[in-house]
Amino acid sequence: MWRLTLEPQRPLQLEMLADFFVELVFDVVTTRTLSDAGSDITVSQLECLKYLQRHGACSAAELAEGLHMSPPAITKLVDRLVRKGLVMRRDRPDDRRSVEISLTEAGQQAVEAIRRRRTQVFEMILSRMTPEDQEMLERSLRAFVAAGLNDPGVVEALCLRCGDESTPECPLIDAYRVLTGNPLQCR
Question: Where, if anywhere, are coiled coils annotated (predicted)?
């Protein structure tokens, strides 16, 4: 098995390795998963669909805030998803001047299919590693994330807004609590 040995004084090699890891996860796991699933869904669209799945119906402003996007960008994103039949807009019952955006059944099915395929790809990659290397990877990733979370603003920006899916083991929840003394509100 190929192994790269890194000296602690070589941060550039570590940075390069981290870049490879990010690209591997993004390109192989996310981008290829979308194309393997025969989907014409982009990464941004998938993030929007996942947000709606976690949080249910919401306004465009809430969606823009949750995805850290501008309102005009959200409008264009939602327009594309409406045309694909993955989300729908309807007047909000409490404010007819505002619309509510929610997943359609097709949108729900698309998110689930992509999530299953993405999990399969992760499992395939992990199966090529020894159990010890899998454990080391998890420990290392948790340690790296924890070390990088030194500002409550960074923690909030990275938060996936998992809502009910959040777990007590979430490194962001732990880091936020340590940094501020308060719990992170997972909306």
Answer: none
Residue 57 · residue 101 · CB < 8 Å: yes
Residue 161: the pLDDT is 65
Please answer whether residues 58 and 94 qualify as being in contact, where contact means their C-beta atoms are separated by less than 8 angstroms. Answer: no
pLDDT of residue 3: 59
**89 phi, psi to nearest 5 deg:** -110, 145
What's the whole-model pTM score? 0.74
CB neighbour list of residue 84: distance below 8 Å, 6 or more residues apart: 40, 41
CA distances, 65 to each of 48, 93, 130, 133, 170 (Å): 11, 21, 40, 37, 21
What is the per-residue pLDDT for 5?
59
Looking from the CA of 10 toward its CB, the CA atoms found within 13 Å total 9
State the number of CA atoms in the 13 A half-sphere of 29 facing the CB.
18
The answer to whether 88 and 101 are in contact (CB under 8 A) is: yes
Cα→Cα distances 152→36, 45, 66, 169, 186, Å:
37, 27, 16, 18, 14
Domains, the chain, ordered by start:
10-128 (1.10.10.10), 130-187 (no CATH)
